[in-house]
Design goal:
This protein is an alpha/beta fold. It contains 18 helices and 19 strands. It has 3 domains: 108 residues, Alpha-Beta Plaits (2-Layer Sandwich); 164 residues, 3-Layer(bba) Sandwich (FAD/NAD(P)-binding domain); 144 residues, 3-Layer(bba) Sandwich (FAD/NAD(P)-binding domain).
């Protein structure tokens, strides 16, 4: 673990600085604690403190807590930024896991399944959402739209002491969570219970009240001190082909809305779904549960499909056929209904503005597919009826970095800005609420200092310290059982034993977890181990020789070597992890 120069030669005594008690100093570099941003948190659009959630469970016994106390603590950490842990534990595509450093050893942590367990546990044990104050403020806020962005904003304002009224066009709150995600992925009772906790904070939700139709937008704006607009994007885009108004043709959002609202739809024996996103996959899998043979038509290849990979695999397991590199060209009608779709065969050209390769028609190459029902799930957009004032030309709503619109009294977030993940909508609603609160109270918007910490990258992790332990996976129903019922949830929640075992796989990237390695490896007694566990280790720098063993052995990368003359942290060799001193 010797210190190396850039030329990789060992260093001798440098600059004539004082030596430790046991011999010649190796370098003037000295150890220091450098807390780092966990990569899982960096990958979460909502900045959830994932490492803290995992360690709350993993360290339960060492900290003298019961597991119930740790689950409550984990829930409160999650609920600080997200009132929907049971929902997000089911529907979020968990980009946090793509960043997890454990993937370079034996597999990323199953973070979303742990979040789901905590969310379900909180519902089963009636954990309330935490309030930040018992103080109440006089300002009234209106939220237009009870989707994830709107409810997140309402929650964050209510827990800060504001009176919030939510106006929802549909008969029940939830937005795309309720009307755009199949119940086999998100059971209705889970969504209902998590929304009810927000209501219990004092939030009023007025359903069947479409702002712009049932009540003028101007009335809302003039009545309330601030307005948050989170109307989502429930309007499906059409294919733009003649005959698309036939009764057996639906947009993806329309189809899912009808099914989730309890309407019975006879899709017939053959269903064609056009598109490659999550809505297309959901519509296809629902159609399979309604008894149809289903084919998805997608104009690019599997590599370019924007849908969640896990959902694509699920659709394939359930017998959904996917035809790539085809695009609808003509609808063939019979007796007023679409009976077939003539498609143009495609090939991939240069990348477009999305970064995906552009589909290019193959001249003279066509293919026809028969159907009883056609579902166009190519994209969706907001319905701005009565809210056109908020649009920016032909674009959707535009906001600044604090989610304020061109009207300083009005804020916005969610899919009416740009189509995105549920966690992005929750983040945007939260940040808008924090901006509203800061504006009313005349205080600066609170910044999270941890988000500016250096990232705990894989080259800072000593993987050999951690025992190999493979990821705990949630059980899934076999395809035949999934297709037997329209609403039966297909993925199980991890058991408590699995959750504890999985949480213990967390490597605590960039944060001391009191392993004692630095203390045990230091031969010069530089490092002082605290009497009480999980307190800060300290350095007796006057005894230090700059050997760097503590930094290179720190499993989680919490210790770095600093040059006392420049104040700079010494870099490390990316291949060996050894500190490079260029003195």
């Amino acid at each position: 673990m010797g210190l190396v120069k850039k030329d990789k030669k060992p260093l001798g005594k440098i600059r004539g600085t004082s030596t430790g008690t046991s011999g010649v100093e190796t370098s003037p570099l000295r150890p220091t604690h450098v807390p780092k941003l966990a990569p899982c948190r960096s990958g979460c659009p909502n900045g959830t403190k994932i490492r803290e959630v995992l360690l709350a469970i993993a360290q339960t016994e060492d900290r003298g807590r019961t597991y119930d106390e740790s689950y409550r603590l984990a829930f409160e950490i999650l609920a600080e930024r997200n009132p929907f842990p049971a929902v997000c534990g089911r529907v979020c595509p968990h980009p946090c896991e793509e960043n997890c450093n454990r993937q370079y050893k034996d597999g990323a942590l199953n973070i979303h399944s742990i979040e789901r367990f905590i969310g379900d546990y909180a519902l089963q044990h009636n954990f309330p959402l935490p309030k930040l104050t018992n103080e109440t403020y006089p300002e009234k806020i209106a939220v237009i739209g009870a989707g994830p962005a709107g409810l997140s904003c309402a929650y964050q304002l209510a827990r800060r002491g504001y009176k919030v009224t939510v106006f929802e066009a549909f008969s029940k709150p939830g937005g795309m969570l309720r009307y755009g995600i199949p119940k086999y992925r998100l059971p209705e009772d889970v969504l209902d219970k998590e929304i009810q906790r927000i209501v219990e904070l004092g939030v009023e939700i007025k359903c069947n009240t479409a702002v712009g139709r049932d009540i003028p937008y101007e009335t809302i704006r003039d009545t309330y001190d601030a307005v948050f607009v989170g109307i989502g994007a429930h309007k499906g885009k059409s294919l733009g082909l003649p005959g698309e108004d036939a009764p057996n043709v639906f947009t993806g959002t329309e189809f899912l809305n009808k099914v989730n609202s309890g309407q019975r739809i006879d899709v017939g024996k053959k269903v064609l779904v056009v598109g490659g996103g999550d809505t297309a996959i959901d519509a296809a899998r629902v159609s399979r549960r309604l008894g149809a043979d289903v084919t998805i038509l997608y104009r690019r290849t599997r590599t370019e499909m924007p849908a969640i990979e896990e959902e694509i695999v699920g659709a394939e397991e359930e017998g959904v056929n996917i035809v790539f590199l085809v695009a609808p060209k003509e609808l063939i009608l019979e007796d007023g209904k679409v009976k077939a779709v003539k498609c143009q065969k495609m090939q991939l050209g240069e990348p477009d503005e999305s970064g995906r390769r552009r589909p290019v028609p193959i001249e003279g190459a066509e293919e026809t597919y028969e159907c009883d029902t056609l579902i166009a799930a190519i994209s969706q957009e907001p319905d701005f009826y009565g809210l056109d004032y908020l649009r920016e030309g032909n674009s959707w709503i535009k906001v600044d970095e604090n989610f304020r619109t061109k009207d300083p009294k009005v804020y916005s977030g969610g899919d009416d800005l740009e189509l995105g993940l549920v966690t992005i909508a929750i983040y945007q609603g939260r940040m808008a609420a924090e901006t509203i609160h800061s504006t009313f109270r005349g205080i600066p918007i609170e910044k999270d200092p941890e988000l500016s910490y250096p990232l705990a990258t894989k080259d800072r992790i000593v993987f050999t310290y951690y025992t190999e332990k493979y990821r705990n996976e949630a059980l899934r129903l076999p395809p035949d059982e999934r297709l037997a019922e329209l609403e039966k949830e297909i993925t199980c929640t991890l058991t408590e034993e699995q959750v504890i075992d999985e949480a213990r796989r967390c490597m605590s990237c960039g944060s001391c977890f009191d392993c004692g390695t630095c203390w045990s490896i230091c031969q010069d007694q530089v490092i002082h181990k605290p009497v009480q566990r999980f307190q800060t280790y300290t350095f007796k720098l006057e005894l230090c020789k700059g050997c760097n063993k503590c930094a290179e052995a720190c499993p989680c990368g919490y210790i770095e070597m600093k040059d006392p003359f420049t104040g700079q942290i010494a870099p490390r060799d990316p291949e060996t992890g050894k500190v490079i001193y260029a003195g």
